[in-house]
Structures are given as C-alpha cells and as structure tokens.
Automatic annotation (TrEMBL):
<protein>
    <recommendedName>
        <fullName>Phosphatidic acid phosphatase type 2/haloperoxidase domain-containing protein</fullName>
    </recommendedName>
</protein>
<dbReference type="Pfam" id="PF01569">
    <property type="entry name" value="PAP2"/>
</dbReference>
<feature type="transmembrane region" description="Helical">
    <location>
        <begin position="82"/>
        <end position="103"/>
    </location>
</feature>
<dbReference type="InterPro" id="IPR000326">
    <property type="entry name" value="PAP2/HPO"/>
</dbReference>
<keyword id="KW-0812">Transmembrane</keyword>
<feature type="transmembrane region" description="Helical">
    <location>
        <begin position="143"/>
        <end position="160"/>
    </location>
</feature>
<feature type="transmembrane region" description="Helical">
    <location>
        <begin position="12"/>
        <end position="35"/>
    </location>
</feature>
<keyword id="KW-0472">Membrane</keyword>
<feature type="domain" description="Phosphatidic acid phosphatase type 2/haloperoxidase">
    <location>
        <begin position="45"/>
        <end position="160"/>
    </location>
</feature>
<keyword id="KW-1133">Transmembrane helix</keyword>
<feature type="transmembrane region" description="Helical">
    <location>
        <begin position="42"/>
        <end position="62"/>
    </location>
</feature>
<dbReference type="InterPro" id="IPR036938">
    <property type="entry name" value="PAP2/HPO_sf"/>
</dbReference>
<feature type="transmembrane region" description="Helical">
    <location>
        <begin position="115"/>
        <end position="137"/>
    </location>
</feature>
C-alpha cells in the first residue's frame, strides 16, 4: 500500500484518539444547535456523544481482550477490551447523525459547509474501520460489530429526531 494512502486511512482514527478535540468539536456543535434554536437536535447530538459509554458497556459485556500486537493504554476507559470497536460505534453515531442532519435544510442550510460536513462525515465513517484494523487495534469482527452496534444506536437517534 502506498505510504500516502496508508496515512490517509490511518488518520481516520485520529479524531477518536483525542479527547480534547472530541470535546471541543462536540461542544461547538451543541452550542451551534442551542444558539440556532435546535434544542431537540442538541439533545440528540448529546446522546450521540454518549455512544462512547454505550461502547464501553458493550465491551464489558463481551470482555474480549485486546490483541497482543496492540500498544494501547489498558488503563484507559474502553481500552482494556477490543470487541466491539468503540471508535467505529462512536464515529457511526457522531458523524452519522451529523450527516443525517445535513439533509434537514433548516438545520445547516444548503451552502458549502453542508457539503464539507457531509464529506468529512463519510470519510470518517468509511475509513475508521479500515484504520482500526491497519493500526492493529481491532480485527475485522470487532469493526463489523462496531458498525452493527453503531447503526442500531444511530437508528434510535434518527427515530428520536423525527
């Protein structure tokens, strides 16, 4: 695999590895929703962020240990077990909900920012799974389960938003 392609794919995991970036971006979107009068969307987006806790609960139900090749921090919340992938669950919920909301014209409008947000969302959702496998943090099964559990959670969020 060409080096630039590997970097492009692996960088999809970066967002989920940085709690300060997740916090700032999350709070920014919540503030945008509240200031714009979209209180329901702010609440549902907050629930999307809570998908991180949902993933940790799932990991503690299944209790499948990390791969020996993974050099993560087992003392971090959710880093002790590998199944399902928390990154994938969170990305499907966070970026998936934002992607969904871009089609509600009154929420984000219809300008360049909407297309940029859609592109960023699709990139993260599509490449986080491959990224987690390449990095060695997860197996294909972990990632597929992350997409399935994330899609279920996202479906509930979309249902609540209607």
């Amino acid at each position: 695999m060409p080096a630039f392609l590997k970097v492009f794919i692996e960088s999809a995991s970066f967002f989920g590895n940085s709690i300060p970036i997740v916090a700032v971006l999350s709070l920014s979107f919540i503030a945008y929703f509240v200031v714009s009068g979209y209180i329901k969307e702010a609440g549902i987006f907050f629930l999307a962020i809570l998908s991180l806790l949902y993933s940790v609960v799932l990991k503690n139900i299944f209790k499948i240990p990390r791969l020996d090749s993974y050099a993560g921090d087992p003392t971090k919340l959710g880093d002790m077990y590998r199944f399902p992938s928390s990154h994938v669950i969170f990305y499907v919920c966070f970026w998936g909900l934002l992607f969904f909301l871009t089609f509600k014209r009154d929420v984000f409008g219809s300008g360049l920012a909407v297309y940029l947000l859609r592109t960023i969302s699709v990139y993260h959702i599509l490449f986080v799974g491959i990224s987690r496998i390449i990095i060695g943090a997860h197996t294909v099964q972990d990632v597929v389960a992350g997409y399935v559990f994330g899609a279920i959670y996202l479906a509930v969020l979309i249902y609540l938003s209607r």
